[in-house]
Design brief:
Aldehyde Dehydrogenase, Chain A, domain 1; 2 domains; Aldehyde Dehydrogenase, Chain A, domain 2; five-stranded parallel β-sheet; alpha/beta; 19% strand; six-stranded mixed β-sheet; globular
């Protein structure tokens, strides 16, 4: 592994510093369970300092007055710096988030692509001229929304951060990024890269800290013009209620319990080869995971057996090993949640066909295929956020659509069939 210094300090208005009260928290390697360092933990004074700096940046227009083209050049420079430090970003994601090295390298490259895309998009936001009832014209122009509070989860910390940071900065907004306390390292490095690329110091803050205090205070502050949150649905619902006090704009990207639908006429071999990756990648810790597999009953037993066999072939292990396909879960608590759901499934009458074995050191859990699942079972209705696949039979097209839509979630899906007409019908019917 490449040797480098782990980032450990807050970034407040462009300044790297310790927390005002000296607080720190430990960061762990999910593959070993070992502490790999301590990071400054932001408190109320640190957030106040970040909000004050960001508000000054917005009011002074230190960033928004930079031409859109030049802002784009800064983001292009950030993309270049990310590529130059791609291996460092990837290694941080391996040791802090448990991502396999292959996945982490792809994420670092994709993160650079995100900044490059929005760098090119910065000067392409068009306004409009609208005729009015009198002889005048109404001009619509796009302007920065203000201080952007960006709250990212632990499952894809640097990649999701890029989705929020790049468009906010492209449009001239100062940003305050709050990474999850489980995975702060890549976010802190990314903040430094943005400063090195030329974003004004006052416009960038990165503050790790507990969501219950730091996140809530950020969401509820009237100086914040926009909140963007990715995380679980219950937290998102709380944020939606909280921002209503100040009528703050908000974007929420929440949980999922997505379905893959496999019809009997599909290329079964191709489906069986692809399905395990669509649910077990990142140890199943993905809101877009297709954690429900709906299979036409005439091929149900065949598919269950084949998917289980393919799942057992997945290489679970050290995420720094390039041959590893599935790494550890993020924490002992997250692994216990998955194990608890497997027991709940058994109590509901489901069958664990393979997997469900915890191992260590670290927080590993072998991927599980669970058969004889009814869509009313808790393991089919509740987001587990772990390597658990529920396989549900259906009789016909109408029932497949009904089961797929019978969920509190949305987000993603997959359809396996050779019938183009059916593909169009079902894809348009699934919500």
């Amino acid at each position: 592994m490449t040797s480098f210094q782990l980032p450990s300090q807050l970034i407040i208005g462009g300044e790297s510093r310790s927390a005002s009260d000296g607080s720190t928290f430990e960061v762990f390697n999910p593959a070993t369970g070992a502490c790999i360092g301590s990071v400054s933990q932001g408190g109320q004074q640190d957030l106040e300092d970040a909000l004050s700096a960001a508000t000054r940046a917005f009011n002074s227009q230190v960033w928004s007055s930079v031409s859109a083209t030049d802002r784009g050049h800064v983001l292009m420079r950030a993309a270049q710096l990310i590529r130059e430090r791609a291996e460092e970003f990837a290694q941080l994601e391996v040791i802090n988030a448990g991502h396999t090295i292959d996945d982490a390298r792809w994420e670092a490259s994709a993160m650079a692509d995100v900044f490059e895309y929005y760098g090119g998009a910065a000067n392409k936001h068009m306004g409009s001229v609208v005729p009015t009832q009198d002889s005048g014209l109404g001009v619509v122009s796009r302007v920065p929304v203000g201080v952007c509070g960006l709250i990212v989860p632990w499952n894809f910390p640097m990649y999701i951060a890029s989705w929020k940071l790049a468009p906010a900065l492209a449009c001239g907004n100062p940003v305050i990024l709050k990474p999850a306390t489980l995975t702060p390292l890549s976010a802190l490095l990314l903040g430094q890269v943005l400063l090195d690329a030329g974003v004004p110091p006052e416009a960038v803050s990165v503050i790790p800290g507990p969501g219950s205090t730091m996140g809530d205070a950020l969401v509820g502050d009237p100086r914040v013009g926009k909140i963007s949150f990715t995380g679980d649905s219950s937290t998102g619902a709380g944020i939606l209620r909280r921002v209503s006090d100040n009528m703050t704009r908000v974007s929420l990207e929440l949980g999922g319990k997505s379905a893959a639908i496999l019809f009997a006429d599909a290329d079964i071999d191709a489906a069986v080869d692809a399905i395990p990756y669509s649910v077990f990648a990142n140890a199943g810790q993905d809101c877009c995971s297709r954690s429900r597999l709906l299979v036409e009953d005439s091929v149900y037993d065949k598919v269950v057996a084949a998917v289980a066999e393919r799942t057992e072939q997945l290489r679970v292990g050290d995420p720094s090993d390039e041959s590893t396909e599935i790494g550890p879960m993020i924490s002992e608590r997250q692994r216990e949640i998955s194990l608890d759901y497997l027991q709940i499934g058994k109590s509901e009458g489901a069958e664990i066909v393979c997997g469900g074995v915890a191992s260590g050191p670290g927080w590993f859990l072998s991927p599980s295929v669970v058969a004889n699942v009814d869509n009313n079972h808790r393991i089919a209705r509740e987001e587990i956020f772990g390597p658990v696949l529920s396989v549900i039979p259906f009789r016909d097209e109408a029932e497949a659509v009904m089961i797929a839509n019978d969920s509190d979630y949305g987000l993603s899906g997959t359809l396996w069939t050779r019938d183009l007409g059916r593909a169009l019908r079902v894809s348009s019917a699934v919500r």
